# Entry
Amino acid sequence: MDTATLFYRFGVALAIGFLVGLQREYAKGEGGREIFAGERTLALMGLVGCTAAMVADVLDSPWAFIGIFLAQSGLVAIAHFVDARRGKVGLTTEVAALMTTLAGALCYWDYLPLAVALAVATTVLLSLKMEMDVFVRRITREDVYATLKFAVITAIVLPVLPNRGIVDTLPFDVLNPYKIWLMVVFISGISFLGYVLVKVVGSCQGIGLTGLLGGLVSSTAVTLSFSQRSQRQGELAKPFALAIMVAWTVMFSRVVIEVAALNLALLEKLWLPMAAAALAGLGYCVFLYFSQRTNEPGEVKVSNPFELGSAVKFGLLYAVILLVSKTAQTYLGSVGLYLSSILSGLADVDAITLSVAELSKAGGLELSTGARAIVLAAMSNTVVKGGIVLSGGSRALRLALLPGFILMLVAGVGVAFLV
# Structure
């Protein structure tokens, strides 16, 4: 190893230790509590880890690294024992110190991306103490049970599910139990991210922020909630329209993320019409935001997406839509797929998005046809939510939302079929 490379690796180890130590010093100042290691000590620990790895390499013996690491671990244990005697219970800084040492060793072993990722993850976890405490206080016993049941059924059942079609005959060959449940896990994970954000930030935030967070979980729930409220609070029609439009725009972004995770080739055909619809919605959101502002809190009730019943229902829906889409595409061509996408979008846009992404990935569907099918499903789902506003919202809400609703539909469908 040349000198420049050696110094670079030690420099990264030093930076990692300083980053973690800086957070610990900030936490000390914020909470007024004593900690045994700050930015200087943890920076040195990063260098100790890198040096220990180098010594083990030079001596060609892993015991050199093990000995140095155990010696440092002993110092950390003594510091913790002293703090415990003073009544200070906690191992956060001590564990962060050991992680910093190991990250420093990874730097010498040329696992630089992993070392930096571990350092960033450690710093983020250390910084999110308050938010995580708030999240723990806001979750319910039912949330914990729902998540545990979903985790158990996924960890135990998913590995033993057959990763092949149940029947080899067309169109039933698309019914792969392993892939179906894997898609359930994927969609539930995306929804759970939004659910966690709602729990951390709180469900009674500003109306616009509530629309953004609620859209990550269920844009339909946001639409229904604010449509009903508009009947009682007609003066807030524009803020409610803003929240609904934000949720719809988030839905388009969510579709893009799902396709990007499953089929990058399809994304190249899909991103432009989805971006056109999202930008149209975003532009109208800006107009609504500046036309009327309010600090009125908004609240949307969302359920844990890891609830086993909901997950099983989505799995069945996805399997049915996958089979219908394959059948329509096999016997009716692209027109049949478009029709099935429109009908499927009336119920759920995630299921048809995953179905089309899977079909096009298998090579049995043209990418441009698949992209248009997803656009039609998204627009069909948007029409359903528009129908909720028209049937359940106040007249003021309908008038406030209608221009953005039409603009979004025209932009998405127009770009998908004309460009």
In short: Residues 3-127 form one domain. The chain has two domains: 3-127, 135-418.
